[in-house]
Amino acid sequence: MYGLTVGKCPISPWIALAGLLLTAGLVQAAPPACGTQFQYSCSSATLGGYTVITPLAATGQTQIVGYNASSAVVFNQTLPIPPSGTAASDNPTQQAVLQADALVAAQSGLASTLPACGSPPCLATNPGGPSVTTNSTTSSYVTQDTPVSARVDQYSTTLSAVLNGTATVFQQTYAMAFSDPTVQAAVSTADAILTGDHATPSAPVQTSTSTALQGTQLSYVLTGDTTPTGNVTVTSTKTFGPAPILVNQNQTDDFLVLAGQVDTNVNTNTEYYAARNDVTTSTYLTTSAYTISGTASVSATPAPASWMLLLTGLGVAGLLAWLRRLRDAA
């Protein structure tokens, strides 16, 4: 085998082969098939290829991509519409998908096989003649963002019970505030343990507390239906046949310009507001510690060790008295 050369640097054929394999591995297969036409993150079959709707929650957008049978991109549009619910409930997304379907069919050379217009995508009738005028509409969107702040509080509460100042007889940490019923139930449990050790439990005392920001997250919420901005643009485009073009409402229908024919397409584009709330959510963690103290009462009864010492002392005293009596008797 012979090596490749880039500039003056030879490249091993094995490195070149590895590069080709790596490049092949980067080609993504089509997502799994959709159950219905308008679903997120799956491939919806259409004439000549398929379409994919991808929710871009991080940027508050929705992307619609149309692929031909070879998985080459022939349509790619990103709408500033935050994904919410299902794509079937989002009219701008549906319009873009139908436009992608029409373009995929046209780019795949299959427009002539579409049914006569009834529901898109379909094939619009060509009246014939050397020239023809068609019409189409499109939509564009501008964002109208309103900043909104939100806060989420999280908790880590540690409860301890200490006997006689040194012995920890209970300790648990809970992912909730001290006032939560679960933590209050734990206070009762700790009190019961101290009481069982003949101690009187004190009220819980907070020994430490701190609150720290854990992170922030930006999300987008469409606040209502899109409304026109009032900006309408009308343009004309001439196409010489033979060629397929997109016509009618939202350019969701195909039209075949015949050989020797010229088409003038008058397009009306309406601009809409996409009103969104830009919600910045801050998450805070409050870490607290509480201690319940209990001191056991001291009993007047000697401990076992004291009893042993007392008995030993009595035994020694008795032995000495007995030895003294023996000596006096002698």
Topology, please?
Blueprint: E1 4-6, E2 9-11, H1 13-26, E3 43-46, E4 49-56, E5 61-68, E6 73-79, H2 91-107, E7 131-163, E8 167-174, H3 181-196, E9 199-201, E10 205-222, E11 227-240, E12 243-247, E13 253-257, E14 262-296, H4 304-329
Parallel strand pairs: 7-14
Antiparallel strand pairs: 1-2, 3-4, 4-5, 5-6, 7-8, 9-14, 10-14, 11-14, 12-13
DSSP strand tally: 14
As residue ranges, the low-confidence spans are: 1-11, 13-27
**Can you give the mean pLDDT?**
85
Reading the helices and strands in chain order gives EEHEEEEHEEHEEEEEEH
Structural class: alpha+beta
Beta strand %: over 45%
Helical content stands at 10-25%
Major sheet attributes: 6 strands, mixed
- C-alpha geometry: rod-shaped
Kindly provide the radius of gyration, computed on alpha-carbon positions and rounded to a whole number of angstroms: 41 Å
Word description of this protein:
The chain is of the alpha+beta class. The protein has 2 domains: 30-117; 124-297, no CATH class. 22% of the residues lie in helices and 47% in strands. It is built from 4 helices and 14 strands. The chain has helices at residues 13-26, 91-107, 181-196, 304-329; strands spanning 4-6, 9-11, 43-46, 49-56, 61-68, 73-79, 131-163, 167-174, 199-201, 205-222, 227-240, 243-247, 253-257, 262-296. Strands 7, 8, 9, 10, 11 and 14 form a 6-stranded mixed beta sheet that branches. A 4-stranded antiparallel beta sheet has the order 3-4-5-6, with helices on one face. A two-stranded antiparallel ribbon has the order 1-2. The longest helix is centred in the C-terminal third of the chain and has 26 residues, at 304-329. The termini are far apart.
